[in-house]
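JOB MANIFEST
job_type = single_chain_structure
chain_count = 1
residues = 312
[input]
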Amino acid sequence: MARIVDIQFYIPQSYQSYEDIATLSGLPSSVVKEKLGITKKPVENKLGIEEMLLESAKGLLSADRKQNTKIVIYSGSDAKGKHVWTLAPKLGYLLELKRYYGFDVSSQCVGGIVGLQLATKLVSNGSYALLCVATKQSSLVNYSDPSSTFMFDFSDGAMSALIAKEEGKYEILSFSFLSDGYFGDVVYAEQRSNLLEVHEIPGWRDKMREESKKNFIYVIEEALSQAGVSKSKIGFVALVHMKRSFHRALLDTLGLKEEQSFYLENFGHMQGVDPFLAMEIARKQGKLEKGVVVLASAGTGWTWGASVLEVL
């Protein structure tokens, strides 16, 4: 299929701690830290989305790579700082690319994996595709709304990944996605509002509790099946940030140990960046041996997605 050549990140240096979130929300600090799984989360106070992406992308592009990067995909937050605006073409211009095709994809927190699939399909021999994911959705959280508790982990940051056909450190083996539009209108921001709102569709919370774990396992197992790999061959699973208890439950269901994943308690939920960040932190810590890595995430709407990679 294709390979991930390299991945670079921009992580803000300013943070909100679990105590800060507790003060803003009125929740006990122990609940924020232990139940929601947030020790601290990065928050960007100066740079915009495109500036964060430039910081993450510039280290990937040597002169030769820049000349041969023909696809730019932005698949991050819809809150890009401007309405009715496409970011990828502007990003390619700022990176001084020539004769490239840039476009945006809207898939919310599963966008990183969706964008990876598109890059895999579109990249051609001898060229590169640049996948860009970023978010500043920490500013969209309404901490005074108890129904928004599951969004209190929203943080800021950016990721850029370079994709090629035959060059790289991760072989991309397969993908699986599953959508359920029953949840389609649960979370969104009204055009007149600067904050995300939870729209209480009758019964959605109970249905989500019943369906989300099942759907995560479905896309992971389906992606493994597409790759011809059994669950016993998983070396590492890189998950979106979620409640501690749900993270542990997924690992238990997959038959994995805690050291076969990385919990993003110091990073919060950086939208579609999460699984890539967890994987790269594990690599730098020497936890990724040659073998199979699974990326898995879910995005409001609601869509669950997974990808199987082989560490080369």
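[summary]
The two ends are 14 Å apart (CA to CA).
DSSP finds nine helices and 13 strands in the chain.
exit_status = 0
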